[in-house]
TrEMBL record:
Keywords assigned by UniProt, alphabetized: ATP-binding, Nucleotide-binding, Transport
Name of the protein described by the UniProt record: Iron complex transport system ATP-binding protein
Top-level taxon of origin: Bacteria
Gene Ontology MF terms in the entry: ATP binding; ATP hydrolysis activity
This protein's record includes keyword Transport: yes
SUPFAM superfamilies tied to this protein: P-loop containing nucleoside triphosphate hydrolases
Keyword match Ligase: no
Record Pfam families: ABC_tran
Amino acid sequence: MGRINATELSWSVKGHRLLDNIEMAAQDGKVVGLLGPNGSGKSTLLRLLAGLRRPDTGAVEYDDTSLRDLSRRVLARRLAVVEQDVTAHNHVSVRQVVELGRTPFRGRFDALTERDQQIIDAALDRVGMTDRQRQSWHTLSGGEKQRAQLARALAQEPREILLDEPTNHLDIRYQLELLDLLGSLEVTCVVALHDLNLAARYCHHVVVLDRGQVVAAGTPETVLTTGLIKSVYGVEVLVDREPTTGILRITYLAATAPRTADATAVTG
Ligand SMILES: Nc1ncnc2c1ncn2[C@@H]1O[C@H](COP(=O)(O)OP(=O)(O)OP(=O)(O)O)[C@@H](O)[C@H]1O
């Protein structure tokens, strides 16, 4: 388990500031939800956290080491990334995709060890893809691809995982299973989510982005208020607790256009 810390992160493209002075932290073993409307900067922030983009200003640290001081190989031994659209694998089997998770630990010409095979078996099992491991990647459904990508990430035995909307193709059962699984791993997770109820239920901490800025951060209870959701998403909601379980519940009532220009900053 590792700690991720981002301070004063900014990133611009062609003069447009897509991320502005982002501060966020993910503590050891916690699940941190990145929330915000379409285009608010969640994927961009995940790419900066993954070292796939260099910030214009600010820094990302894993534990106390700056991302700039971590080589790609060293980073790949601790950090797994599950991106939104993965179409790169074609004429390969599911198992071969999951095997890629072991790449950072192997020499270029080394065969997979017995231990590698056991880790791959366990990863396939955890996402319920053992039966499909010989199936060709390009024949998988969207949800099966997402589960196989998660298995690849688990095969890395990472300390941290970054996930970009990992539930968007999953049926409700696999949505719950995936988030249960993330919560049960001894891994620090930063996960971009659209479903506020899933975030409320599974995230220890949420960070809300709007137009490239953090407008709220804290526990789901403190952040996911009717006022915040209305100002950021332009949606009237009812926030209460489901009576039998006590789980925080957000009921969407109506879209109210337009969105408030600037959401009130909340931190805690
Ligand atoms: N390389 C780029 N060049 C120009 N614009 C970009 C680039 N990358 C991202 N953007 C823009 O930055 C904004 C943030 O995009 P990003 O994908 O991070 O949002 P998001 O919060 O993940 O959105 P969604 O919920 O729709 O997935 C968008 O308006 C997007 O069009």
